[in-house]
Amino acid sequence: MADVYSFGNGQANGNAGMKDILGGKGANLAEMTNLGVPVPPGFTISTQLCIAYLEKGEFPATLRGEVEAAMQRVEAAMGRRFAADVEPLLVSVRSGGKFSMPGMMETILNLGLNHRTARALADESGNARFAFDSYRRLIQMYGSVVYGISGTTGDPFEHALEAVKRDRGVERDIDLAAEDLEALVGTFKEIVRREAGRDFPDDPWEQLWGAIEAVFRSWNGRRAVDYRRVHHIPDDLGTAVNVQAMVFGNVSEDSGTGVAFTRNPSTGTPEVFGEFLVNAQGEDVVAGIRDPQPIAKMRDWLPEVAEEFEGYCRTLEAHYTDVQDLEFTVERRKLYILQTRTGKRTTRAAVRVAVDMVAEGLIDERTAVLRVDPAQLDQLLHPMVDPDAEVTVIARGLPASPGAAVGRAIFDADRAASQAESGEAVILVRRETSPDDFHGMAAARGILTSRGGMTSHAAVVARGMGKCCVAGAKEVDVHELERRFEVNGVTVEEGDWLTLDGSAGRVIVGQTELVEPAPGDDFLRLMSWADQYRRLRVRTNADTPGDAARARDYGAEGIGLCRTEHMFFEGDRIRSMREMILANSEGGRRKALAKLLPMQREDFVGIFRAMDGFPVTIRLLDPPLHEFLPREDDEITELAATLDVSVERLRRTVDTLAETNPMLGHRGCRLGIAYPEITEMQARAILEAACEADEAGVEVHPEVMVPLVGHVEELRHQAGLVRETAEAVFRERGRRVDFLVGTMIEIPRACVTAHEIAQVAEFFSFGTNDLTQTTLGISRDDAGRFLPLYAARGILPEDPFQTLDQAGVGRMVQMAVELGRRASPKLKIGICGEHGGDPRSVAFCHRQGLNYVSCSPFRVPIARLAAAQVALE
Amino acid sequence: MADVYSFGNGQANGNAGMKDILGGKGANLAEMTNLGVPVPPGFTISTQLCIAYLEKGEFPATLRGEVEAAMQRVEAAMGRRFAADVEPLLVSVRSGGKFSMPGMMETILNLGLNHRTARALADESGNARFAFDSYRRLIQMYGSVVYGISGTTGDPFEHALEAVKRDRGVERDIDLAAEDLEALVGTFKEIVRREAGRDFPDDPWEQLWGAIEAVFRSWNGRRAVDYRRVHHIPDDLGTAVNVQAMVFGNVSEDSGTGVAFTRNPSTGTPEVFGEFLVNAQGEDVVAGIRDPQPIAKMRDWLPEVAEEFEGYCRTLEAHYTDVQDLEFTVERRKLYILQTRTGKRTTRAAVRVAVDMVAEGLIDERTAVLRVDPAQLDQLLHPMVDPDAEVTVIARGLPASPGAAVGRAIFDADRAASQAESGEAVILVRRETSPDDFHGMAAARGILTSRGGMTSHAAVVARGMGKCCVAGAKEVDVHELERRFEVNGVTVEEGDWLTLDGSAGRVIVGQTELVEPAPGDDFLRLMSWADQYRRLRVRTNADTPGDAARARDYGAEGIGLCRTEHMFFEGDRIRSMREMILANSEGGRRKALAKLLPMQREDFVGIFRAMDGFPVTIRLLDPPLHEFLPREDDEITELAATLDVSVERLRRTVDTLAETNPMLGHRGCRLGIAYPEITEMQARAILEAACEADEAGVEVHPEVMVPLVGHVEELRHQAGLVRETAEAVFRERGRRVDFLVGTMIEIPRACVTAHEIAQVAEFFSFGTNDLTQTTLGISRDDAGRFLPLYAARGILPEDPFQTLDQAGVGRMVQMAVELGRRASPKLKIGICGEHGGDPRSVAFCHRQGLNYVSCSPFRVPIARLAAAQVALE
To answer: Does ipTM top 0.85?
Structure first.
C-alpha cells in the first residue's frame, strides 16, 4: 500500500471514506478535489506510516521517492517549484488524525522559505514586507512545532517581536517595515540557535522532513496523550501529515479571503451567509483590524469568482447533504477552497434546515430526524438569556430548573405574591424555601436560593412548575430580614433587577434580553417524523393537572411519575399533614388523613382527565416526615401556636424526626410500613378518583407505585394494602377499574433481587436519581465540593446526575431488567429519574429494552427525538 | 408404608433417623425405646398422614385398624385398658413436626377420662382430688385444642376456676376439695356446650379421634403458618401425632418427678445435675409450691431407682455423645424417662464439655470444635451482667460496644477523668461525645449517650477501646449542666450508681453483680483445634499498638483495618487537624500536616512492632472533615479562641462543611483527591514507619488501603500518590520495604466494576458496614425507627448490620469477588466490616473464597471458631 496520497488538479488518490488512513482533514481535501472543487494541491502521508515511524524510529526507504514524486505533482499543478530561487513553491504542513482533536493541530505555514526564496517572493509580489513577515512566521512556527521552543518566561519569539515594536514605537505588527521584519528573521534564527542548540535549516527539503517527523512525534506528546485519554480515543490510530501548496489572498487587490456557510446558521434561511476581506489572509480576519464585507458584496468585487464560489457551495452542500462551513482564498482572481466542514448552527436553524432539505429532496425523513441534537431542543422551549447579550454574572449556583427569568429581587413569599399581583415581575430570593413559601414561588418568575441542592424543596418545586431556578448559590449571603443579599462585594437590595439563568446556574445583575421560545411548524413536523421511528414510549413526570396538560401538548403519552407529596405542601394540606405527623396514635393519624383524602382524590381526578386514555403512575408518599416540619426556632414557635400544641412538644417531634442521613432514612415504603394508614388513604384516593373519572367517561389506567423497595417483602406488604383497599373501594362504588401495582427500583438491593421483586410487582420504574446516589454512594446535595473536581481531572468526566453512569448505575439497571424479565417476561419497565430526559440516557434505556422513559414536561420533546435517533442508529 | 409407628417395651418401629416421618419428638421416643430406656409406651401417627388428611379432609380407611392395634400394644405394655371402667389407660396426645416450633406444640393430657373412668381412677389411687383435677384439666385442654375455645374476654375455664376459688375462699388450686373439682367438671362441660355448641365427648375413642384431627388441623392454623414463614420452614412437612400412655408421679410417696442434666450446664462438671419432687407431677415443679430436692438426694429416697436413672443418663449421653436434658417420672417405684434432648449450657460449660468429651473418647476434635456456638464466646471474654441478678432496666439504647460496667454516673469528661484517677469507678454520661471527651472516655468504665447511632463517635471509640458503651438511648433526657438525667420518671443524679450492659443495650440503676471473663485452658485447647481446620485467616480491626497487642493475644494474624482518623482525635493532634481544615491554602494545610506526620509515624511503628511478621492494613483518612469540628455555639466560640481565628470565620467553615447526607458526602478517597497532601502525609508516615521498624528488625507487611472507591480512576489517582511517595521515602532512607496498595469495597459501583478496579488494586477489603448502608439504602444511624419493625413483621428478620444480608449485600460481594478474581486471579480479598466477627457472615466469607476476615479484638476468637466450623461442615 502506498504511504503518500496526492490531491490536486481535479484528481486525488484518496476520498472521504479513507479517514482511517488519511485522517479527517486529508480525506476531506481528497474528496473535495475529486468533486472538482479547486483545492490547493498537495499530498497526505498516511497514519499507518506514522504508526510505523513511531515504532521503528525511522522512515521506510521508499518514502523519500514517494514524497519527491508527490511534490513534483504539486509543482506541476501550481506552476512553481519547491526550493527554487524563482517563483518558489511554499507549502503548509499540518497534522490530522481520524478524530478531530481541537487544539492538538500542529501547523507550520510558509515552509520552503529561506533567504533566497524569501527574496524571490519579495521580488515576485513586489511586497518585501509580506515576504519577510511570512519568513519570520515560518521560523516561529517551526521553532515551536519542531524544536518545542516555548521558553520558561513566555514565548521568546513574541518577546523579540514586542521589543522591535517598542523600538520602532509602533503598536501593530502591520506597522513594521520590511527591513524591521528582515532584521527580525535574523533575531529569530538566533533564538533557534540559542534555545534548540542548532541552526534553523536553510534547505527547504530539510525543513520539510523535520516538519513531517515533528508532526508524527506530536502524536505521542503529553498533551495529545492526555487529550486522548479524556476523550477515549485509541492510542494506536496515529496522525496523518498534510503537505499542501500555500496560496495567498494578500498579494494584490484582486486577491482576498473569506468564510461562509451554505445556509444561514442562525435562522436556517437557504442563502449563502458569510464575509470576506480583500487583499488579506485569514489571520487578518481574525485580527479584526479591518471590517470584512458580507458575502453578497463579492458579486460587486469579482462577479465571476462570486458565481464560481456559489456554485461550489451548492456542489458541496449537495454532496455532503448538509450545511457546509467553508474557508476560501482568492489569489489573483483564482479561487481556492481551503476547507469545508459541517456547519454548526442554532437549534432553530437545525430544525429548519432538516425540514427544508427533506422538501428539497436532499435527505429523507430519517436523516432529518438524526440531524437535530435533542439536547439543544431546550433552546426552543424555554426562554433563554440572549447568547449575544453582555451580562454581569455575580454568582453561580446549581442549574436547578432550566430557562431564564428577569424580575425584581423580593425577599419573602408574601411580598412576592402581592408584587406579582400588581403586575411586577418578581425573582424570589430566599436562603432556602419551605412549603410556607409555595405561594411566593408560584407568583415569581424565577427562584434563587443560597442553600440546598438539586433535590432541595426550591429545585424540586420549581422543576415541577417548569419555572426557572438557581439553587444553592453558596456565595450569595442572603439577609432576609434586611431585604438584601451580598455576593463578591456586590449588594443587591429589594427591588433591584436580577436575571436568572436556570439552565446554566448563573445569577446576573440587571435586566437582560431574553430569547423567547418559538417551536414553530418545522419543529412539529420534525417531531411527527421522530414519533414514527421510536420504539420507546415517552411519559412525563407531573404532579398537577396543569403540568399533565402541558406535557401532553409536548407529546407525553402518560405520566411516569406523579409525586403525591407535592400535593401536601399547599395551604390547608400542609396543616393536615402536620397534624398527622404530630398525632400520637393511629386514630389521630387517621383523623388527619381523612381531611387529606378528598383533596388528593380531587387532584387525581384532574390528572386522570388530563391524561385520558394514557397510563398514570402515582407514587405513594416518599419523603421523610421531617420535611413537612419547620426547622428554625421562630418557625417552630409560630407553627406551635397555629397547631395549638406546646413549643416544647413540637420541638421534641422535630428533634426526634431529625436524621443523620435523611436520604437513607425513614422514607419511601418504610413510612407506609410504619404507618399503613397513610398507604391506605392514598390507595383509596387514587382508586376512588379512578372510579369517578371512569364514571365520567374518562379512560383511566392507574398504576400505583411503591417507592424505595429494597426487599420483596416490603412490596408484598404495601401491594397487599393497596389491593385490599382497592377491593373495598370497588365494593363501595359498585364499579371496577383495572390498575397495576409496581415499584420504583432505586436501591441497589432491589436490582440484585429483581427476580424476587418481579414476582409481586406488575411494573418496575427505575428511579435513577436515588439509584445513582446509592450505587455511587454520592449524595447529590453534597456532591458540589468534589464532583466538579472529578470532572476536571477526568475521574468522572460527566455529571452522573445528568447523564446515566452506564458502567455503574447502568449495570445495575441491566441486571434488574434481566432478572426481572426472567421472572416475569412481560414486566413493564420504565425510568422516571431525571435521566429520562437526557438523550444519551434515553438511548441507553432503548438498548436495555425498556418500555418507556418519563421526564419533566419540557424534556418530553427531547426524549421523543432521542428515542427516535437511537432506534434509527 | 405404615401410618402408625409403635414404641414401648424395649421395641419401636421407628428410630432417631426418621424425623421426616415421625417428627422430632416421635423419632426420639422411638430411639430411646430401642436403647432400652423405659419410655411410657405409645405410638406415632406419621407426618405423611397429616399431609394426606389436610389434602383430602379425611383419613384412609385403614387407619382406624392401625390405631386400634397400636393401642392394644400400649394396653399390653401398661397392663391397663383404654376406655375400661377399671384400671383405665389414659393417654396424652401431642403434635410434633420435623423442626421444633416453640409455642406451637398442641398438647392434651389425661385423654380417656369420663365420669366412669375418673371414678375408677379415684378408687384405684384413693385420691379423688387427683382424679377429678385430671378430668377437669382434660376438658380444659380439649376445649382449647379441639374446639378452639379461648373466649373474647379471657379463658372462660380459668374464669370458672377463679370463681370457685373465690367462692371457697382459697388462693391455690391445690386447696380445692375433690367435690369442688368434680363440680368444676360439670361447669367445664357447660362451657364447652355453650362455646363450641356441642357436648364434650364421653367416649374415650371419640376423644382420641377428635384430638388427632385437631392436631393435624393445627398445622394450617394462623399462628403456625406465620411462625413457619418467619423461620423459613416449608409448609409441606406436616406434623406427626404422638399418643402415649400417661404415667403419674403424684399417686404415692414412692412416686415422683424430676428433671436432670447429664453434666452441670453452668460449669460443665461431669456430674448428673438436676432436681426432683416426691409425690408430684411436672406442673407442680413449675408452680414452685414445694421446693424440689437436688438430684443427689434421690439416692436417699429410692436408691435402686437412682442408680437405674444414673445408668440411663450414661447410656443416653454415650448414645447421643452430648449432654442430655432429661425429664423423668417415677410411678410407684417404676422409673419412666419422658423426654431427652440436648442440654442447653453456658459457654463455659460448652467449652469444658467439648474438651472433656474428647479426653473421654466420646467425640473427636472436629466434633468438639463444632459443639461450641461461636456467637456465645463473647461471654468468656467480656464481663457480663450476671444473668441471675435481678436488675431494674430504666432505659434501652443501642448495644454499641459489648461487655458490662458498673460505676457512678458522671456528666463531663474532666470530672470523669479526675474521679477515675482518685480510684472511683465511673460511667460517663453525655448527650453525645466529641473528640474533646476522649480523656473522659478513656478513664470511664463505660459510656452512655442519648444521641447517635452504632457509628457515632462514642460507639466507634468505645469499640476501639474494647469498652462497654450504650449509645443513642433516646428516652434518656440528659441535662449536662444540671448533672442529672431523667428517664421514664426516674432521675439519676451525678454520683448515683449505674450499670451498663453494652451487649444488650440496657441501662440499669444501681450496682449489679458482674460475671468476670475467664477463658481458661479448655478454651485455649479448643481454639488450637479450631485453628487446625480453618482456611480463612483472621485479622483484627485495631487502631493502636495496645489494641493490636491484645488482638494478637486473642489469635489475630494481622490487622485488617487500622483507622488512622482515630489517631487524630487525641490531644494535640485534633488541634493540628483543625488547623489543617481551617487553612486556606495547600501551603497552610501542608504546614499543619507536617505537625501530624511524626505522631502518625510513631503510632505506626508501634503497630508494626505489635504485629511483627503479620500484615497491617492501614486505611487512609475516611470521615468527612466536619467530624473534626465542633457544632454547638459555645464549643465554636471556645475553639475560635484556642485557634486564634474569628468566631465568624470558624462558624462559616463549620457551615460550609455541613452536609445533608454525610454518609454519602465528601469523605473517603474524595478527600484525598481534593487534598492530595493529606494522602501524601499519610503515605509518608506509613512508609517511614515501615522503614524504621524494618531497620529495627521487625518483619513488616504494610498494606495501604484507599477508602470509598467507586471508580477505578479514583484508586488510580490515590495509588499513584502513595507509590510516588513511597519511592521518595525509599530514596531518602536508602531502604525498601514491600507494600501493597488496595482498596475498600464499600460502594455498589465498586462491586459491579470490580474487574476494572482489580487492575489497579493489589487487594480488596469489603467494608460491609457502608456496603450494607448503600446497597440497602439504609442509614445505620437512622434505621432505629424502622428496622425493629421490619424484624417484628418478618420483612427483614435479621439486623443486616449484625448479620450480612446474603441475598442483597452478599450478592454484591459475590459479584465483586468473581469480577475481581477474573481480572486478577491472585487478588487478596478480605472483609473488615463488623460482619467479620459474626459467625454466619464468617461462614459466608469462607464460601465466597475470601482470604481473611477482620474484626474487633474481642471477636477474633469468635471468627476463628466460626471459620473452623464452616470449613468442617
So the answer is: no
